[in-house]
Amino acid sequence: MYDTKGQIPKMISNKNLLVFLLLTLVWLGCKQTTDFIKPSYRPLTEAVYSTVTVVPKEVYNVYPAVSGIITSSILTEGKIVKKGELLFSIDQIQSTLNKENARLNYDLAKYNFEGNSAILKDLKENIQTASLKFQNDSINYQRFAILWEKGIGTKQEFDNQKLLFETSRNELSKMINTYKRTEKDLANKLKIANNTYQISTNNNEEYRVTSLMNGAVYEVLKKVGEAVNPQTPVALIGSENDFILKLLIDEVDISRLQIGQLIIVSLDAFENETFECELKKIYPSKDLRSQTFTIEAAFKTQPKILMNGLSGEANIIVSKKDHVLTLPSQYINEKNQVNTKKGLVQVEVGISSLQFTEILNGIDTTTEIYKLETSE
Question: What mean pLDDT do residues 355-366 have?
Answer without folding.
Answer: 90
